[in-house]
Specification:
Length: about 525
């Protein structure tokens, strides 16, 4: 499991070590230089002679970059630091200067080469015009180390001279080619704790993060700015509970309902699916496909798409009966009162009788005021905005997309449900601070019907662990994250690197489950 921690927790973990004189910045800078060295060898074959540009802000994040730059300069790299603040980390600046790195001050007046600490060579870089000199430097760099802002970031985006550097770097990259960008601790400008990415935000290829990942490296939309994430152990002892977690391959076996030797179809879980209709049978077929692919004991289908469901899946039982979990609402039209009544009844049953339920699409506006955490909502951003508006919040789809965690949390707080917010990175919020961010799916998965398959997979897992999911209110969030992981992996497996149809994703689920939990 990849765990991330809020800046306050990281600072609290650093404090006793700093008080004891542990050289945390040395550890961080050493690891950063090692990773930058790997990148330089990959793009240029060697560190010696490579061109490294440092973006340096006012705080310790800039200090990390300067110290790492000094290490690279001692290994023969040509290092130029662009100083975006009047005062930068003094020890780092001295180290870089001693290692013969160049410094160049940038700001409202552009580069003027007046960096402190006796940098006699700063003036070379300012030739050719102010902004032009910076752009030329960035364009000619093999690697840029982004040390503008770390966990001390406040507000959205990088302000001031640093923000101008972020924009200049974006222009260089948009023009094609450009350097490999390595973010120091976090990409500068992201919301470190909430994953927002407004204003000037560095787009990194790699983030080298210290002590533990930060939530913004996992959460959308900021996660996209982080690139690959390398976590460096600098010796911090962090709290037991992370801010945001991400399930990985090794986590699936513990969570998945793998049948024991004495299993039979009822003990493995029966899933009730109230989805689709005669007019729109596809959602029903896809939900059932996902559930069967995930290995549910049995599916009972209730609704007007019985013939189509049976044609695709003769193992399904059509009609009502006892179930251990539900999938509700996929493909249920707003004017289909018969099916909506069935969804209402199933929701009430799930709440009253302790049966986990997935409430998707057409079930979201039928939700009682409050539900237990074993009811899992699976909206996309637009549906979540609608749900929140129905509860009095003035919120649009774009607001949800800009701050998915905050809005998923709000929906959880208002309804009591576990909330799985679908997206390129899927965010899950449950009670007691359970938060997951799963970025497993290829962009190709954004396709009609994919959500129906996800609902089926999640329903199967909830049916298989029905009693556990009711007894432990944080478990539905973990199982929802697990379903997102399997669903995303199935999309990759169905057609690596290419387009996928939802039915192909469902067909790939059994193989993914076998790979994750098979002996
Ligand atoms: N502690 C340790 O031992 C270790 C720490 N480590 C490293 O330290 C980093 C944290 O360092 P840090 O606390 O100095 O904060 P940092 O992020 O560098 O910047 C703060 C400065 O930025 C400014 N500023 C804020 N927001 C802004 C904005 N939007 N736009 C523009 N400016 C903004 C802010 O100004 P202020 O808001 O105070 O006016 C202040 O001047 C951490 O991420 C890791 O890399 C590692 O070495 C491991 C050991
Ligand atoms: K940074």
């Amino acid at each position: 499991m990849l765990l991330s921690f809020d800046p306050d927790d990281v600072r609290a973990a650093e404090r006793p070590l700093l008080a004891a004189g542990v050289p945390l910045m040395d550890r961080a800078a050493f690891a950063l230089a090692v990773h930058a060295g790997h990148v330089l060898r990959a793009v240029r074959g060697r560190v010696g002679g490579a061109h490294v540009v440092l973006l340096v802000g006012a705080g310790n994040n800039g200090g990390d970059a300067l110290h790492a730059g000094a290490r690279l300069a001692r290994r023969g790299a040509r290092v130029t630091a662009l100083l975006a603040a009047p005062q930068v980390h003094a020890g780092g600046l001295a180290a870089l200067t001693a290692a013969h790195g160049r410094t160049l001050r940038v700001g409202a007046d552009g580069p003027d080469g007046d960096a402190p600490a006796g940098d006699g060579r700063a003036a070379d870089a300012s030739g050719g015009g102010r902004g032009g000199a910076v752009a030329d430097l960035l364009a000619s760099a093999d690697v840029v180390l982004d040390g503008l802002l770390g966990i001390g970031a406040r507000g959205g985006g990088v302000r001031g001279a640093g923000g101008e550097l972020v924009d200049a770097l974006a222009r260089v990259r948009a023009a094609g080619g450009g350097p490999v960008v390595v973010a120091v601790d976090v990409p500068s400008g992201i919301g470190v704790a909430d994953g927002t990415a407004a204003g000037a935000v560095v787009r990194a290829d790699l983030t080298v993060t210290f002590g533990a990942a930060k939530p913004g490296l996992l959460l959308p939309p900021a996660a996209e700015a982080a690139g690959a994430v390398e976590t460096v152990d600098i010796g911090l002892t962090l709290p037991a509970r992370p801010a945001v977690a991400r399930l990985e391959t090794g986590d699936a076996a513990d969570l998945w309902p793998v049948p024991g030797g004495s299993a039979q179809k009822y003990s493995r879980g029966v899933l009730g699916v109230v989805a689709g209709s005669g007019a729109y049978p596809g959602a029903a077929v896809l939900s059932v496909s996902g559930a069967l692919g995930a290995g549910v004991g049995m599916v009972r289908y209730v609704g007007g798409a019985g013939p189509q469901v049976l044609a695709a899946h003769p193992e399904v039982v059509v009609g009502e009966g006892r179930v251990q979990a539900w999938v509700l609402g996929s493909g249920v039209a707003p004017d289909d009162e018969t099916q909506r009544d069935r969804v209402r009844a199933a929701l009430a049953h799930a709440v009253d009788h302790g049966e986990p339920a997935v409430a998707d699409a057409g079930a979201l506006d039928l939700l009682p005021e409050r539900v237990p955490a074993h009811v899992v909502l699976t909206p996309h951003a637009g549906e979540l905005a609608t749900l929140l508006r129905a509860r009095g919040d003035d919120v649009a789809r774009a607001d949800v997309e800009a701050a998915p965690l905050a809005h998923a949390r709000r929906a959880h707080d208002l309804t009591g449900a576990t909330v799985l917010l679908k997206g390129a990175v899927t965010v899950v919020v449950g009670p007691h601070g359970a938060v997951y961010a799963q970025g497993d799916a290829p962009a190709w998965l954004a396709t009609a019907g994919a959500g129906d398959v996800l609902g089926g997979v999640l329903g199967a897992v909830l049916a298989g662990r029905s009693a556990d999911a009711v007894a432990d209110p944080t478990l539905p969030a973990a199982l929802a994250a697990l379903a997102a992981l399997v669903h995303g992996r199935a999309a990759h497996a169905a057609n690596p690197g290419g387009p996928v149809a939802a039915s192909a994703v469902a067909a790939a689920v059994p193989g993914v489950v076998r790979a994750l939990v098979g002996a």
